[in-house]
Write a structure and sequence with these properties.
Helix 1 runs antiparallel to helix 2, helix 2 crosses helix 8 and helix 4 crosses helix 9. Strands 1-2 form a two-stranded antiparallel sheet. Helices cover 51% and strands 3% of the residues.
């Protein structure tokens, strides 16, 4: 296993606060995901499989109340991290579906070195968010987007200083961490720009 393990902030929080048995289960989930993903060829197909597994993990939490709705786009004004495999998948989807990307805006976003807080205050929408507030790549969206579910009032998401309640699924975060460790990661603008040229 890589000595350079990348752990999402949600998974790190889980591991830091988990009782010993839950910590052990979390690390076993990470190792299982790591070796399963490592056995697959890199690229778009591995990202697609990863997304299906993540969906299964998140379905286990379906009974919990999620308040996110179509048109609620505050989370689309963040700068998510994606894996190298996901960047390849998104680039393939853009080319196959003929999705128009504002390349100047993508380049500008990729070069932006703002902190997470500064980025949120700028309210820069994702290059995949259309004028109707819908994601152009929703079915192929990255794990960061798939794993982001709000349980509090979605109106709070647009406020930079608001405290929101997220639904955390440690197993989905273990998958994200394993994928980032294997395929590398970076911000969506940076990784997508690298793939699209």
């Amino acid at each position: 296993m890589s000595d350079d393990i990348k752990v999402t902030s949600a998974f790190k929080s889980f591991l830091d606060n988990a009782p010993k048995n839950a910590y052990t289960q979390g690390m076993e989930a990470f190792k299982g995901a790591y070796f399963m993903l490592l056995s697959m060829p890199p690229g778009a197909e591995r990202a697609w499989v990863l997304h299906r597994i993540s969906e299964q993990q998140l379905a286990m939490d379906a009974y919990k109340q999620v308040t996110c709705r179509v048109g609620c786009t505050a989370c689309c004004e963040t700068r998510p991290h994606i894996t190298g495999d996901e960047a390849k998948l998104l680039a393939d989807v853009v080319k196959e579906r003929g999705i128009t990307i504002d390349m100047d805006r993508l380049r500008e976003a990729a070069a932006d070195t703002s902190t997470v807080e500064e980025w949120r205050k700028k309210r820069i929408p994702c290059v995949f968010l259309n004028d109707q507030g819908r994601c152009e790549v929703y079915h192929d969206r990255p794990l960061t987007c798939r794993n982001h579910h709000v349980r509090s009032d979605p109106a709070l998401c647009a406020k930079c200083d608001a405290v929101i309640s997220l639904l955390n699924n440690p197993m989905a975060e273990a998958l994200s961490s394993a994928a980032a460790t294997i395929a590398g990661d970076g911000t969506l603008p940076q990784m997508l720009l690298k793939e699209l040229g």
